[in-house]
Amino acid sequence: MSIEQKHEKPLNHVNSLQSRNFNDSGEKRYWIAEYNLYGDPKYGLATTAAAAFPLRAAASVPQISLDIVVPDYEVTVRSNNEDHVRIPGGDVIIEEGKSLVPSYTVTVDYPLGYKVQDVVLTDRSGMTAATGLNIPVASMEPGGQTPAESVETGSTISGVLSLNGDDPWWPKDVFDWEICENADGTSTLIIRLYPFYYNPATTDVKFYKNYSFDMVVISSGVKVQSLRTGQHAYAPGEDVLVNLRVNNSGAAQDVIVNAAVLSAGSEKAVDGFPLRTLKGLTGAASFSLSWDSRGFESGQYYVEVTLRDTSGKLLDRKTKMFTLGKSGGEITRFAVTPPSFHIGDKVEISLEYSNTGTENISGTVVVKVQNDSGGVIEQFRSNIIGLIPGNSATFNYFWDTSRVEDSSYRIVGYVLQESQASAPAGVTIALDPNTQCGRENSGDVNLDCRVDLADGLMLMQYAAGWRELTNLQKKAGNITRHQDYHEVGIADVVEILGMLVKSHWPGQ
């Protein structure tokens, strides 16, 4: 059985882990850090190592005992005379106002069909003592002592062994443990050790190097085969539908189904369902539950289903996250005026965004003006702050066309909300075909609304490679109607001169 140091949790696990670490009173004692995709480390246990925590194939025989030798701690003295303590491959405990001390985590994989019921510390030895360390205190204030990296941790089952809560030593725990249910049906036991203790009043240190554990493991053919909610998000007050499928691949047995709704923020049960006993379960059984969400605040919740036998032994556990409170919006009007423009016009762009959900929403309106090749030549942005459900907000912009280089443009608008973009709205706008300024194939190369020798001169300079023209100028100078307007040149100059001769001497 392989044992690996626990570092960053991979994001390809089906169920995110939510750690629960309790003392005897049942209240959360301190936070374990969660990995956040947007770089927002939270209170808790922050990893100091960069190694991955890969999904691994569990051994076929479950491990029932474990000996751990913790690497010696290391002390780094900073310029402010603070002592920063770390255990190679370990983590750091972060709690506001408490000393930043290290912890150490190991993991053990268990094959499909086996469940850890308990983890028992059978021996702890190799204690050494020291004194005189000046260990800094964790602070969530700007500039405070907080490690920059964080790790996602959590459990479906957890246990903790604590020391006397009255003494000044920190931390209070000896160890805690938790179970992660993996996507392939195997599970991972996570044991978190607290081998380093610090007394800030005396600067004394105690460090334990050796730990031995026994794991109580049972074999179970009973599992939660699937757990789904009818929707990912519900409006407050809606009934949340839960569909559950349980399977027993072993001998018939009575299975007790316990389901509860927990708040994802506090990890506390906020409501529950009556216990259900599946008598003599063999094969598969399916049923549905309905949770009345009236009276509950908007937020993230999850349904937790636990299967036990009649003696209380855990057979399986599964969770499913859902959201109470729908956040949504859509672009209900997108208009561009006028639909065709003359060079120098101020084109008005109007976007209306409506809150179609049940929660206040905030976001960013983005409007882009794109040329024929898709390049953005101008962009507008505005913030939406706390738009109330059922309400709309309108945003108006003005695009100055005095320096346009093409005869047509695509104007696109969308709204960024919670890192996701709404369905875009778009309108194509083109130069007025009746305009005399820069009209395609007109010969007005310099876009001054008339054709004269200056236009021929500009086109001749372009043909000679002495100057560049915009796409709009090339299209205007394309008198001979080349298939590719970039090929305008001497032939078009001749046509412009011919036009001028005929305009001055009609009989020629």
In short:
The chain is mainly beta. Helices cover 6% and strands 46% of the residues. It starts with a strand and ends with a helix.
If you had to describe this structure to a student in words, what would you say it looks like?
The protein is 6% helix and 46% strand. With 508 residues, it is mainly beta. The strands form seven sheets. Strands 1, 2, 6, 7, 10, 11 and 12 form a seven-stranded antiparallel beta sheet that branches. The longest helix has 15 residues, at 490-504.
- Which strand-content bin applies to the residues? over 45%
Tell me roughly what share of residues is in helical segments: under 10%
State mean pLDDT (0 to 100 scale). Answer: 80
* Helical segment count: 3
**Unreliable segments (pLDDT under 50, ≥5 consecutive)?**
1-57, 146-158
Backbone shape:
elongated
Largest sheet: 7 strands, antiparallel
DSSP E strands, number: 31
Report the end-to-end length measured between terminal Cα atoms: 100 Å
What structural category do the secondary elements indicate? Answer: mainly beta
What value does the Rg take, in angstroms? 35 Å
- Oligomer classification: single chain
